[in-house]
Amino acid sequence: MKVCVIWSAESRDAEGLPRRDEGSVSYSAAIETAARRDTDPQAAEFSQRVEREAKRRGFSQTPRQVVIGDGAPWIWNMAEELFPQALQIVDRYHVKEHLSQVAKALYGQDEAADRWAQGRHQELDSGRWRSLTRALARHAGRSPEARNCLQYLERNRQRMRYPEFHAQHLCTSSGVLEAGCKVVVGTRLKRSGMHWTVRGSNAIIALRCYKLSGRFEDFWERRAHKVEA
Q1: How do residues 161-176 score in pLDDT, each as one tens digit?
Q2: Neighbours of 171 (CB within 10 A)
Q3: pLDDT at 226
């Protein structure tokens, strides 16, 4: 299941940090592929879904466009194809999760792991890139986790300029999306004893997205028009 969430964040909290605007969130989700061969005449199914929702929400007309993802290459490939003008940001907490996993691989569950991870998190937040990558490079020769994380950072460096993004009052967390995955998918499809076909799950999730996006009446109006036609 893949989920696309669109929201605005022009509001600010008491500390001046960006805050999701109330009522601005909309969802679109389905079990669809995001893969596309160069010879395919059309974009992948999920790419078409994202493009439709973006057009409906007027994403291309917004003064500042941002795509936030967890660092998966297919997300950035789709973003560059659909929204080449948008700023790309890797979710900051996903990066910290990667660093914490490296800490556990190096130090186990010891307090040293927590200290090492906290040091790397602070370097990430403050933009001390050289210190961060050096700390990983020291262990890259003997630790595949450190080596893979270092490659992950280097591959997404331009998407991890967090001090610069924060200075522009931009969101650097995909918390709205993570919450959406739970609210849209988890609480409806992952209940005890449930078993789903792809067709059935997509049908239920479509209803779920309409309801949570405040478009439930629109859904039934469209269904009524189809029946009349």
Answers
A1: 999 999 998 989 888 8
A2: 21
A3: 59
Of the chain, the end-to-end C-alpha distance in Å amounts to 32
Q: What is the pTM of this model?
A: 0.87
Domain locations in the chain as residue ranges: 2-91+173-228, 92-160
Cβ(210)–Cβ(106) below 8 Å: no
* Gap between the Cα atoms of 30 and 185, Å rounded: 10
User: Tokens at residue 43, please?
Assistant: 């974009």
CB atoms within 10 A of CB 34: 17
Strand extents, DSSP E, the chain: 2-6, 11-12, 18-19, 26-30, 66-69, 87-90
**CA neighbours within 13 Å on the CB side: how many for 114?**
3
Token pair of 196 as six digits: 């789903």
Closest CA to 69 of 154, 156, 145, 129: 156
* The two three-digit tokens of residue 211, written as one number: 């309801």
Question: Which amino acid would we find at residue 164?
Answer: E
